[in-house]
Design a protein that fits this description.
- This protein is of the alpha/beta class.
- The protein has one domain: 3-Layer(aba) Sandwich (Rossmann fold), CATH 3.40.50.
- Helix 7 links the parallel strand 7 and strand 8.
- The radius of gyration is 16 Å and the shape is globular.
């Protein structure tokens, strides 16, 4: 089996849910968690229509494992607006015994805020992501400038609709990196609408 899972499964801790008849517990992806959901040890894709709960679920999972809800890494966190649903408090995360050495949660929609945070950390940090400033690049270029250096072996990677930032060529570059890292033991959880990524 390729890779190894740092999160083996997720489910709902019903003792922490006041009522299942309100948001976010009424959206389809969350309703499926009443029974434990086993993740693939290499790559898990969350796929569904708009409003099915893919982003809500991946954001809650990111917060449950220690990221903020906008984007970031283990060492770069920020928050411009608290938009976290209470779902993270009710998630039951079944973990592997290994602790990943690195991790990233990326949301294409909050990339501007993440780039602003990275640049505010100073030129030494910002230069690690390319010669051009993140705000001097296109949306897709800055996404790849952040993502590709951050991704390393045996990490934890949650991506929320990365295709929103990427051209087909950018999606292929991302897929190449994902394939390399899965071979080296870095599992991914990706919410996506992209036929290219799913294929």
């Amino acid at each position: 089996m390729r890779g190894g899972g740092w999160i083996r499964a997720i489910g709902l801790d019903l003792d922490r849910v006041a009522a299942l008849d309100g948001y976010p517990y009424t959206i389809p992806a969350v309703q499926r968690l009443e029974d434990e959901f086993t993740l693939d040890p290499a790559v898990t894709f969350l796929v569904g229509a708009n409003g099915s709960g893919k982003s809500t679920l991946i954001e809650a999972l990111a917060v449950a494992v220690g990221f903020n809800d906008e984007s970031g890494s283990d060492s770069i966190t920020f928050q411009t607006r608290n938009s976290t649903s209470p779902l993270h408090e009710a998630l039951r995360v079944v973990r592997d015994v290994r602790r990943p050495p690195t991790g990233v949660f990326l949301r294409a929609e909050s990339l501007f805020n993440l780039a602003t945070k990275v640049e505010a950390l100073g030129p030494e940090v910002a230069q690690a992501y390319g010669e051009r400033g993140l705000h001097d690049q296109s949306h897709g270029e800055s996404f790849l400038s952040l993502a590709l250096p951050w991704f390393g072996p045996n990490g934890r990677y949650l991506l929320d609709e990365p295709e929103a930032a990427l051209s087909p060529q950018g999606c292929l570059a991302l897929l190449r990196r994902i394939d390399d890292l899965v071979d080296e033991g870095g599992p991914f959880i990706i919410a996506t609408h992209s036929p290219l990524l799913m294929a």
